[in-house]
Amino acid sequence: MSTAGIILIGDEILSGKVADENARLLVEDLRSLGVALKKITVIPDVLDEIAATVRNFSDTFDHVFTSGGVGPTHDDLTMEGIARAFGGKVVRHPELERLLRGYYGERLNERNLRMADVPEGAHFVDGDSANWPVVAMKNVYILPGVPEIFRRKWMAIRDRFADAPYVLRNVFTHAEEGEIAAHLDAVVAAHPAVQVGSYPRFDTSEYRVKVTLESKQGDEVERATAQLVELLGTRVIRVA
Amino acid sequence: MSTAGIILIGDEILSGKVADENARLLVEDLRSLGVALKKITVIPDVLDEIAATVRNFSDTFDHVFTSGGVGPTHDDLTMEGIARAFGGKVVRHPELERLLRGYYGERLNERNLRMADVPEGAHFVDGDSANWPVVAMKNVYILPGVPEIFRRKWMAIRDRFADAPYVLRNVFTHAEEGEIAAHLDAVVAAHPAVQVGSYPRFDTSEYRVKVTLESKQGDEVERATAQLVELLGTRVIRVA
Hints:
- Two copies of one chain form a homodimer.
- Chain A is of the alpha/beta class.
- Chain A folds into two domains: 3-161, MoaB/Mog-like domain (Molybdenum Cofactor Biosythetic Enzyme, Chain A, 3-Layer(aba) Sandwich); 167-239, Alpha-Beta Plaits (2-Layer Sandwich), CATH 3.30.70.2860.
- The first copy, chain A, is built from eight helices and twelve strands.
- The first copy, chain A, has helices at residues 11-14, 22-33, 47-60, 78-85, 94-104, 147-157, 177-190, 218-232, and strands spanning 3-9, 36-43, 63-67, 90-92, 117-119, 123-125, 134-137, 140-143, 167-173, 195-200, 209-215, 236-239.
- A six-stranded mixed β-sheet of chain A has the order 2-1-3-8-7-6, sandwiched between helices.
- Chain A is elongated.
- Chains A and B meet through helix 1, helix 2, strand 2, helix 7 and strand 10 of A and helix 1, helix 2, strand 2, helix 7 and strand 10 of B.
- Strand 2 (36-43) of chain A pairs antiparallel with strand 2 (36-43) of chain B.
């Protein structure tokens, strides 16, 4: 089972100027790809924080995705932060410089070339590389913060992360959490491969608790669901 | 200037079953209160991760807000995680036990009493404490994951975090980032108290870049904005 972490880099999210769309997209897509997302962190545009967080995530998870902080201005520190995470520097990449010069032509400003600076040892991930490749450093995939470009880049590389799918069952009950907690314990103990979640509602919806049972081992999910349904008896509203 | 961190605890967000509403509310409210939000982290229902993250945040920021993982079921590990963060245990609080017994009456299940378990040394924060107080451990405010209850609890305590307000100016330009990067550097160098952000757009909106200038020192924001407007000249579309 492969694991992933997401790092959102940018004061704009922490200060409420921009609402995140990128992590939201990745959360849903990673789940449908069968990748276990283990952590999301939002940090400011601060070099040492970027470096420390990236290094920690890279050591801990199979895949790491960063969003934001790539561009030509003073607050774009992601490339340097990632280089520092691995004890290296940023270097100007000749292929990216060529693409930039082709794109900007006469309008090219010296500062635009900063977008050709990548961590030493970085590699390109295929996708729409004729246009502009996704840059990765080891297992860290460096994506831009602007949502429409983030989405396009991610869609170009997403399929390479596909893993065995998750199987999910939902059991809805009109019992309260306290009433079913011991039954949930029994299911959790009998089926360690199944992740069991309990989500109460306090509004006027049809159910009081939704229990989720999820695993990559589909047969275990079915057995755990059957056990829970038997334990809850008439308190089950429906299984989906 | 006071700082804050947010910890969202729960597999349901990482697995895409539930979209976060609580951090979003806090991000906006903390900014309007003048509190500098420095980090948001989303972690799973894993005891040691809760403990390590809470301890780190508590040591690093003035205020820490946790969301989720409070309740009577096996996946509700926040109280124990926070207790562990500070080297303590959870203890059953007599006042909370009394409230629970009053609320549930004859329907009380033994497991409901787990909701009276709090980290040793925790204190109550006022607000709607006649109903159910907000529990805090040192500078860590423990809030529930269910959005409607999260909101109610937060509204009951939010005013106590009020700090000096931020002053924000936005400068919109039709120039590209590469073209204005050196000017931004000059403004950043001349006004270290001002946080300068540069946010490009690539769609068909009226502007190409929005520059934000923000500080608690309002006069410095005005001076930095004036400097930038002069440097950009006719490339400025408007200031807001």
